[in-house]
Structure to design on (268 residues):
């Protein structure tokens, strides 16, 4: 078992110092409470504003921001998930990425967002193509998606069939989409039988008003922690026993008929 912490907060667009202070404070509180990991929202260190980031953010500053985030993890001896833009392979476009650090500040997992949401993201970023990878983190097989990715069952299932028992999801979900954390996240956890932690912004940033509503769902679809619309630091116990029990009771993953589904797709 591991105590997981989830930060829900309001970021200041392009005010990296202020946003890192918020993360640092949350990391300190989470570590003092015994948490092994802090999950933060999508693009939180720079604020969520795709077009402003594309116009104003100097990518040469990103390595410095990453090192400062690694310093937060080291200083508080806690794992940390953060999300930042990253230059894509062709150097002329950016991905939205998430990074998992261990308690020493070392990068142990990286993921680039596959499904972009809305016209601003499509103008500022490009979608990636690599599936979610899985690593062992504090004895739990752990993977990541970002925001809109988790709304696709195929993306969550891709993590599950690679062995994920914990799925970490930085997000930037606007107000008005209440069914995503209240219904969909719990359904994704249930149908792929893994823990899902979903960290959202709160308040206003640039032109966006965020829902809040961060949640942690268990592999049986149960609600382990939930936030309202205000800043919050959530805590939930996650582990492997509940995952194994859910997968033994109802063997969704073992009883998939992938060849049949592929044939159905061809006939669609």
């Amino acid at each position: 078992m591991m105590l997981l912490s989830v930060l829900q907060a309001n970021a200041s667009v392009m005010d990296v110092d202020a946003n890192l202070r918020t993360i640092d404070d949350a990391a300190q509180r989470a570590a003092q409470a015994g948490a092994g990991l802090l999950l933060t929202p999508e693009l939180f260190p720079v604020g969520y504003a795709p077009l402003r980031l594309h116009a104003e953010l100097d990518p040469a500053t990103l390595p410095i921001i990453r090192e400062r985030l690694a310093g937060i993890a080291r200083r508080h001896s806690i794992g940390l998930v953060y999300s930042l833009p990253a230059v894509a392979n062709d150097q002329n476009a950016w991905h939205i990425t998430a990074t998992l650090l261990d308690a020493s500040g070392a990068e142990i997992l990286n993921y680039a967002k596959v499904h972009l949401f809305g016209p601003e993201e499509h103008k500022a970023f490009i979608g990636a193509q690599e599936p979610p990878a899985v690593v062992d983190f504090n004895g739990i097989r752990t993977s990541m998606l970002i925001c809109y990715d988790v709304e696709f069952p195929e993306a969550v299932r891709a993590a599950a069939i690679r062995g994920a028992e914990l799925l970490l999801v930085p997000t930037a979900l606007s107000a008005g989409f209440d069914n995503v954390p209240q219904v969909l996240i719990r359904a994704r956890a249930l149908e792929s039988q893994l823990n899902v932690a979903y960290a959202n912004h709160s308040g206003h940033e640039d032109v966006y008003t965020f829902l809040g509503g961060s949640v942690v769902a268990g592999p049986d679809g149960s609600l382990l922690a939930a936030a309202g619309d205000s800043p919050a630091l959530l805590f939930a116990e996650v582990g492997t026993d509940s995952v194994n029990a859910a997968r033994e009771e109802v063997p969704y993953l073992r009883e998939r008929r992938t060849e049949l589904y592929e044939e159905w797709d061809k006939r669609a």
About this structure: The helical segments are 16-32, 50-56, 62-76, 118-124, 153-161, 179-192, 241-249, 258-267. The mean pLDDT is 97.
